[in-house]
Design brief:
four-stranded antiparallel beta sheet, Rossmann fold, alpha/beta, six-stranded mixed beta sheet, single chain, 238 residues, 2 domains
């Protein structure tokens, strides 16, 4: 199977501090791949390095067979890669409708209405709140806006950074169910960074474990869930 996204020996730094250490990772077309690890392990840094900020100082990042590590961020995102960032980062003073429009405008999606209807079908609550300012929504609703805004660009690869962060368990289940449904219906490829290891590994086809900037383990979601060291480090009591 050909990788849609392939990182080979990728290292990146914040100043003199090395955040990623020779990371190898593959995401095949149509897969959900999750990256789990503790706070500060480098998960979000890996996601941002794919997007070109920070820039990889060593190694290769190939997307759809093309090297993208040296490209500016706006060129990378134009290749039908979209990110829903950690902390949601919605435009608080804009309405839900306007937030979603921004996602389409950035990518130049010519069929905004159809795509928005698809987002509203995935997240019916956004249709009900379309005229409401995003900053007045609940955390879960804002997460729906952030994911919906990313989907408005019609990406081939969706980068999801901590979609469950700060959400109630019921909302977490709804968000993960929507991601699963989207992947099954459309074949959308997803790279998911997540601290909720149990939910992430149940959802993912494959997973990687990141510890102090280095990949220490990889396997299918089921394989990683079954490993005692994973259960001890990330699941027990959580």
């Amino acid at each position: 199977m050909t990788a849609l996204l392939k990182l080979s020996g990728v290292s990146s730094f914040y100043g003199a501090i090395q955040a990623l250490k020779s990371v190898d990772l593959e995401v095949h077309e149509g897969e959900i791949v999750t990256l789990i690890g503790a706070n500060g392990a480098g998960k979000s840094t890996l996601m941002m390095t794919v997007c070109g900020n920070p820039r990889a100082r060593a190694g290769s990042i190939r997307y759809d067979g093309q090297e993208i590590a040296a490209l500016p961020t706006f060129e990378i995102m134009r290749r039908r890669i979209a990110q829903s960032p950690e902390g949601r980062r919605v435009f608080a003073r804009m309405t839900v409708f306007e937030n979603l429009q921004m996602g389409a405008e950035v990518a130049g999606n010519p069929d905004t209405r159809t795509t928005m209807d698809e987002v509203f079908a995935l997240f019916p609550r956004l249709s009900e709140r379309s005229a409401q300012r995003a900053g007045t929504l609940s955390g879960g609703e804002q997460q729906m806006v952030a994911i919906g805004r990313a989907l408005m660009s019609r990406p081939r690869l969706l980068l999801l950074d901590e979609p469950s962060l700060g959400l109630a368990p019921l909302m977490v289940r709804q968000i993960f169910a929507a991601i699963r449904d989207l992947n099954r219906r459309t074949g959308l490829t997803v790279l998911l960074v997540e601290q909720n290891a149990f939910q992430a590994l149940r959802l993912a086809h494959r997973g990687y474990v990141l510890v102090n900037g280095a990949i220490t383990m990889a396997g299918t979601g089921a394989e990683l869930l079954a490993r005692p060291e994973i259960r001890a480090a990330y699941l027990e009591g959580g």
